[in-house]
Specification:
The protein is globular, with a radius of gyration of 18 Å. It contains six helices and two strands. Helix 1 crosses helix 2 and helix 2 packs antiparallel against helix 3. It has one domain. InterPro entries: DUF805 (IPR008523). It comes from Parerythrobacter lacustris. This is DUF805 domain-containing protein. Pfam families: DUF805 (PF05656).
Length: about 170
C-alpha cells in the first residue's frame, strides 16, 4: 500500500476545498483542511493589510476595514462546515458533528474579545464562561484537524491519500 506525500499537491487540495463548498460527502485529508485554514488566514491578513495601507489607517479598524473583514469572514466561513464534515468522515466519524461549527462560530462572533469583528454585530460580555466555551470549541476543532485518517476504505469512501500503484 503506497501513500502520496501530504505535500504532494497543495494547490489541488485547496481547489478541492473551494469546489466542495457544499459537498458534505466524501473525505478530506488533514493536508486539505490545514491548507485551507492556513492559506485562508494568510489571504485575509494580506487583504486587511492592503486596505490599511491604502486607507492610511494603521491604528484601529476603519469602516472600510470593518466591512472588508466582515465580507472576508463570511466568505471564509462558507466552506468550513462542508470541509469539517468531510474531515470528520476521514477519521471515521459522522459528519453530523459539523452542525456544531455554525453554532460555535455564531457564539464566538457575539462574544466580546473572541471571534472576528463583523460589522453590525453587537458583542456581548459573557465573562469567563463565554471564554471557556470559545476556547473549548477551538480546541475541539483543532483536535479534529490533527487526528489521523482511518487507513482503510469506510462508508465514506476510500482513503484519499492512497496511490493506485501501476504494475
Amino acid at each position: 500500500m503506497a501513500y502520496r506525500s501530504p505535500l504532494y499537491d497543495i494547490p489541488s487540495d485547496l481547489a478541492r476545498t473551494v469546489r466542495g463548498v457544499l459537498t458534505f460527502h466524501g473525505r478530506a485529508t488533514r493536508t486539505e483542511a490545514w491548507t485551507f485554514m492556513v492559506i485562508g488566514s494568510l489571504l485575509a491578513g494580506l487583504v486587511l493589510s492592503a486596505i490599511a495601507t491604502l486607507t492610511g489607517e494603521a491604528q484601529g479598524f476603519s469602516t472600510a476595514q470593518s466591512v472588508t473583514a466582515s465580507i472576508a469572514s463570511i466568505l471564509y466561513f462558507i466552506p468550513v462546515p462542508a470541509l469539517f464534515a468531510r474531515r470528520l468522515h476521514d477519521i471515521g466519524w459522522s459528519g453530523w458533528f459539523a452542525v456544531a461549527v455554525p453554532a460555535f462560530y455564531g457564539f464566538a462572533t457575539v462574544t466580546e474579545g473572541a471571534g472576528p469583528a463583523i460589522a453590525g454585530i453587537v458583542k456581548n460580555d459573557f465573562g469567563w464562561p463565554g471564554t471557556i466555551i470559545v476556547l473549548t470549541g477551538v480546541a475541539l476543532m483543532y483536535l479534529v484537524l490533527l487526528l489521523p485518517t482511518s487507513e482503510r476504505a469506510d462508508r465514506f469512501g476510500a482513503n484519499p491519500r492512497l496511490v493506485n500503484e501501476q504494475p
